[in-house]
Design brief:
Helix content is 41%, strand content 17%. The protein is of the alpha/beta class and 406 residues long. It has 2 domains: 67 residues, no CATH class; 276 residues, Dihydropteroate synthase-like (TIM Barrel, Alpha-Beta Barrel). 37% of the residues are buried.
């Protein structure tokens, strides 16, 4: 066969495939031409700029109030701009493509480095609230035991929660929330467990207490409803997860969960909130975004978020997927939370393929295997793999057992 199709157009993958036969600048040139994107502008570009884009090979169409531009990075780079305004627009378009092509490689959380380059990091859930919908922990010893097991299974982060956000549960006070989580965080931190500790809270007073107790990350499911949370995080040099929500925690109003464009609304919300966090002093490489599956959404919107998950990469931050055993899947399949492992893993795979770099899950060993399997399909990770001669449980052979490296 004289003509073959390459399944990738990314410069790094081309260099992995062809090695020294392909120069880096040539790989980048091929990638720039091959990777076309459709970008959306809320306002039409200047007529002269549109004409220059079309001359470079781009396609531009109007879709109501929006302008859709289909072009590769090379096409934008070839455009001749006439003034500073057009130069700024071209740079903004190129930056959007750069973000789409890149993935944040690490998180830095109070001195802890979480590598996100090759494999998505798994965040294990420890619920210490008696009204959690699934898999509760009833004691400090139980929390330590669970944290150790999760880290042994491959979790890089542990997320401690002391407040259920289900609409059928009443909101607990800040003092009750602190009573549930602070001692658990201190115990996990004191046990020498090799994982970053996250706490799921939206209150600045709770954030202060758990960070003082040794936490590294605050997971705010309210979308910074209290800006003081970001101030507390910044003062401690800690990390911050900012989640999108429509409505209010512990309340449900399906009639209010209407979206003209669910991903557009989520990305605009998260952009505004991350800008606020940066302005309050949170480090860029300590911020994570979460689209907030099920928080102010009905199942159709949750499914659309999974379908279009990759659009969140335009924000330029690591993306957290928190889909594990959530009720939108239970409603779809007619199953209780304890029967939703397979749909949860399916959502995790969709998220990783689309760019999720952290996954908040109940089922750590299964999700770690999934993330690792997907990572092993990349040449660099695959080359570092050491493989024994036999799979465990197979009959012994007379051959000498050892390890082979691909």
């Amino acid at each position: 066969m004289r003509v073959r199709f390459l399944a990738t157009s990314e410069a790094g993958a081309l260099l992995e495939r062809f090695g020294p036969r392909l120069a880096q600048n040539d790989a980048e040139a091929l990638s720039a031409v091959a990777q076309a994107y459709i970008l959306v502008l809320e306002q039409p570009p200047p007529i002269a700029f549109s004409s220059a884009l079309r001359a470079s090979g781009a396609t531009i169409v109007e879709a109501g109030d929006a302008t859709l531009i289909a072009a590769s990075r090379a096409m934008f780079e070839q455009v001749t701009v006439a003034n500073a305004a057009e130069r700024g627009l071209r740079d903004e378009l190129l930056e959007a493509i750069r973000l789409a092509e890149s993935r944040p490689s690490a998180l830095h959380l109070r001195g802890r480095h979480i590598d996100l380059d090759d494999e998505a990091a798994i965040m294990g859930i420890i619920n210490v609230t008696p009204d959690s919908f699934y898999d509760r922990v009833a004691s400090i010893d139980g929390a330590i035991k669970k944290a150790k097991a999760m880290v042994s299974d491959g979790a890089k982060l542990i997320d401690v929660g002391g407040q259920s956000y289900a609409h059928w549960n009443a909101r607990v006070t800040a003092e009750e929330e602190k009573a549930r989580v602070v001692s658990v965080v201190a115990a996990i931190a004191g046990a020498g467990i090799d994982a970053a500790i996250s706490v799921d809270t939206f209150r600045a007073s709770v954030a202060t207490a758990v960070l003082d107790a040794g936490a590294h990350l605050i997971n705010d499911c309210s979308g910074l409803s209290d800006p003081a949370v970001a101030e507390v995080v910044a003062a401690h040099g800690a990390g911050l997860v900012i989640m999108h929500i429509k409505g209010t925690l512990n309340e449900r109003d399906p009639n209010a969960y209407r979206y003209d464009d669910v991903l557009a609304e989520i990305t605009d919300f998260l952009h505004q909130k991350t800008q606020r966090a940066l302005a309050l002093g949170v480090a860029h490489d300590a911020i994570v975004v979460d689209p907030g599956l099920e928080f102010g959404k009905e199942p159709a919107s949750d499914l659309e978020i999974l379908e279009r998950f990759g659009e969140l990469r335009a924000l330029g931050y690591p993306i957290l997927l928190a889909a594990s055993r959530k009720s939108f899947m239970g409603r779809i399949f007619g199953r209780a939370a304890g029967e939703l492992l397979v749909p949860s893993l399916g959502a995790a795979a969709l998220g990783i393929f689309a760019g999720a770099r952290l996954l908040r899950v109940h089922d750590v060993p299964e999700t770690v295997q999934l993330a690792r399997m997907l990572a092993l399909t990349t040449p660099r990770v695959r080359r570092s793999l050491s493989i024994p001669d036999q799979m465990p449980g197979t009959p012994a052979t007379t051959e000498t057992r050892g390890a082979k490296t691909l």
